[in-house]
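Fold this sequence, please.
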Amino acid sequence: MMTTFVLLLLGVLLMVHQNEAVFHYYIQGSVMGRNQSSDTELYQEIADILLRENTRPNGTIAQNYCAIRFNTLNFDTSSGSAIHNSLVTARANFEDKGVAVAIGPYIDVFTSTNYVIINQLHMLTSPTGEDAEKMDPDWVLSILPEQASISAAVADIVNKLGWRNVALLSQDDFSPVLKLGHYNIQVWPIRLPTTIVSDKDQELQRNLIELRKSQKRKFILHSTKMDIIQHVMLAAKRLHLLHPSIDWFITYPDFEDVIGEREDSWPGSIYGIQLLRADKIPTNISHNAVIAERNISRLELGLAVDVVGLLRHVIYTVAQNCSKEPSVDYIVSAEQFDNIIKDQQSLTTLYDGALGQYMWHLENGSSRTNYTIDIMRMNAGLETIGTCKFVKGIPTLKFTKDIVQESSTTYTFSREEVLKVVTRQYDPFVMKIAGEYVGFNIDLLNELSKKLNFKYEIFDVSGWRLDQHRTYTDGMVQELINGNASIAVGALEITAEREELISFSFTILSTRASILTKKAKSTTNFFQFLGPFSTGLWLLILGFVAVAGGTLYAMNRFDQTQRGVEQKFDLKESIWYSLNVLLQGTTEYSPQTTSMRTLIAFFWFCVLVIDAAYTANLAAYLTLQQIDDRIKTIYDLADQTDLKYGVQKGSDLEEFIRTQSVDPFERMWAFMKLREEETLVSNMTLALENIKNGKFAFIGDHSTNEYYAKQQCGIESIEQNFGQKNFGLGFPRGAPYRDDINRALLELKEQGFIDHLKEKWWAEGQNCTDDTKTRRVSDKTTAELELTNMIGVFIVLAAFVVLAVIVEITERIVFCFDARRKKKRAQKEEPEKTQIDSFEGFRPPNETNENGPK
């Protein structure tokens, strides 16, 4: 679409007619602009107010014999013929020498040649910038200070502040670059978008993101447009570039208007210049409702007031303060206006407007020479720290306050700052329960927000995204790169590849890979000492003892040489002797005959073999019991195919195993690739069920696997010696608040808060009542015997002790009954015999004498 330029010519009569017989002094001129037709109305309103209030430029009351006339002319560039017609019409209007002056912004067809503006001076109402070379200095007078002198002042100020490396943000004017270069200040120029309609402009945001990545700490924002300044500063605030570690210098001539009434809404340290004197704008204009509806900046209003004031100053000079009525209407010619403006003794030394004193350098007519700007600073309050006086365009600095800022070691965010937090759900780092985010990192984020006094808005993303280079990047990392998030919170691994894209905090948590698998059932065998021999062998040994004892008894009974011998092998003694030999015990009896000794010799030999075999087999059996053939390492997984195993789809571990070309990872990836639907897990709930059923083993981060193991029943996490990971918080490259958060993290570590969070989120679950029936790989599996290994021996010992007591009691009872029975029989036979003591039955028979019990 073609742009339409509007050429506005003075032609609107601004005067109060008392009657038709009154004559006036007139000054006529043109107001030129690019789509700025409202400028004419603004100038009209200002002139009308000043004339109606009868106020001279110096503040005294004036008569109504002076007036200003404005005409309007459209300048159309929609086509070649329209441009030609507009130029012809403009030239015809400017051929009238009664049009005293042309007023408006830079338009090259007016300022670069006298083809259109023939007789008039052009009072330029826009900055000259890089277009100054195209202007004819004999025909152009700048209302605003020349950008070259402002650039020189900015360079002087920046040099005094000690800035050696700066970034310069501007839309079209980079004139300060050369001035800064004279002081050997390195400048990184950043061209802002040509059109910026809001602080959320995508191209503007990209510019500021690149600026943040540069990690520079000194910025110069160079513009004379208030809306551009506001959009850039609001976008910088949203990206947290307004920070105590970053200094801004704003070249907009009304720094107080940039800061506004709410100084606390701009954190950080901001410098600027103050050219506008707001108190020079008459109250009846600044508070006029019609003008207020135009929603223009204070600088635009001050410039318009000064334009009208200069025109009035000229006509007041011609009409001698307009105190006398002319005999006829008097029109100030272009030649008169030119002579009066350039006569510094009569006019320019006397007029002091809202933008300072107006004096032009006559050798170069476009330059304002004498004026003063204030040097301002906003840091916990707005203050003036110095002035810059221009004499013949040369700046002279004078600082009234210390310009060295004490760097603060601590920083808390302002109450209005909000961090946009991106996260990804990953147990137990970040979880969403009943619509609320909970987890290890959420608790940490809450504590950081309290400590640093910031608010946050949280949103989550999926795992991996395809970036502009067609490669997969973590979703949280991508949001930081795109500038949509201020901080990433969650299971974010610190890697060298990501370090090139974003910045990280200090390490919060370190972990390695682990295998999540089902626990083995716990098997307790109290009679492991019986394990070396089978049941049949034990019965055979018992039979062997019985046979040996019976043989000894038979030999002793039928051996004629043993008659009358005191040591006799009855059945009880024979069995006891055989058992003693088997158990390597001792006995009072010893075989005497050759046959019995022969039998015993071979019996000893058999017992020797049995004891040696039992001892050896017992040691081997107990050793085998300690051997655990469960899956404990990735090598165990890779060496088998019965149990399926896999990783979470899209995870860092999947990428790690896929890219490895060494054993066993290469074999593992081939195995998983063949069963991709089963091994690349996307549903962790289903995977946990398969793990508990013993059908699957999951390879993941030990921190997460340990959480599942503690919360679920019957599974365990076996840590591996690979996949070392360090987790931290993520920030955009160059985020100035990273150091503040790092400092807070260190304090939380020192206070033990992070350890407390680990204990909280990796605590044992309370829902597993059968956990004692299972055993972990990490349980103690040393070669030493424990109580459970030998308790069967003590059980047998206790059983035989009880049996011996029972036998002894039974024998005593039987003996007692037998003694009573004998007593009754004796009483019948010998009634006169003394009654037997009732306790006699419990005394051993060998303790009685011939007279009865002792």
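The domain at 418-512+740-751 is CATH 3.40.190.10 (D-Maltodextrin-Binding Protein; domain 2). The chain has five domains: 4-144+297-354, 147-252+255-282+370-399, 418-512+740-751, 526-723, 787-853.
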